[in-house]
Amino acid sequence: MDFILDQSMADLGVTDVVTAKVWGVDVHAELTDEFRAKQQKWLDWALKVDPDTLADNRIIKGYNDLTASVGRSLRKNPPTAIALINNVKRRGSMPHVNSVVDIYNVETLISYEAIGCHDLDVIDFPIEYTVHGREDTFTPIMANPKRVAETDFVYRDRKGIMAYLDTRDADAYKLTDATKNVLFCFVGNPTTTVDERIEELKRVLADLKACMPELTYEIHHVSVGADEVIERG
């Protein structure tokens, strides 16, 4: 199996993961006018919303509860959507990285979902979603190395940690100008359903496909002891 969901994650309430291998991306693709209109709509929303009003949202609360359950600070490790909203407010604009990141950032504002995205070609499979089980360090994108406790949940390949607490992705697996293939991970939390995450992933794939027509993908549903391909496109 390319993806393994450890029982330690199920014990935290994360019983399923949705992920996708995507081939033929163009990180420099021109975004469609339709997507740019959607991006502007959610930029306007993010500039106006008070993040504190989202604290009782089911999905935001689910991420907060999951992080708190392993004893980590919510101030230092806010849900991805809250961190993105605060970033937008500081900048006064959406951060621009590349076309792939720009597309999934908008989905994060829509769904509040934490979305991991990595260069598929640098991954040494299998990927394991797990409580790490040992003291360690990893280097997030554009940040200094972080200490990882044995009780922290991560996902990792044979080489190292790819994402930490579903809030920070590792620098070693980030998208670059040379990236042609990517991996999306929708780990979710105990409040997010498989169907919701598949729907969110398909919105991302549709936006990508609109400006990258040669793109192909494979969606996986991962549960404890199982890795099922549920759709190819």
Task: Describe it.
Helices cover about 35% and strands about 25% of the residues. It has a single domain (about 5-230), classed as Phenylalanyl-trna Synthetase, Chain B, domain 3 (Phenylalanyl-tRNA Synthetase, Chain B, domain 3, 3-Layer(bba) Sandwich). It is built from 6 helices and 12 strands. The protein is globular and about 45 Å long. Strands 1-4-7-8-9 form a 5-stranded mixed β-sheet. Helix 5 runs antiparallel to helix 6 (about 195-210). The protein is α+β, with helices and mostly antiparallel strands.
Indicate the structural class. alpha+beta
* CA gyration radius, whole angstroms: 17 Å
Tell me the number of strands: 12
How much helicity do the residues have?
25-40%
CATH class: Alpha Beta
Globally, the shape reads: globular
In CATH terms, what is the architecture? Answer: 3-Layer(bba) Sandwich
Number of domains: 1
Biggest pleated sheet: 5 strands, mixed
Q: Helical segment tally?
A: 6
In sequence order, what are the helices and strands, one letter per element? EHEHHHHEEEEEEEEHEE
**CATH topology title:** Phenylalanyl-tRNA Synthetase, Chain B, domain 3
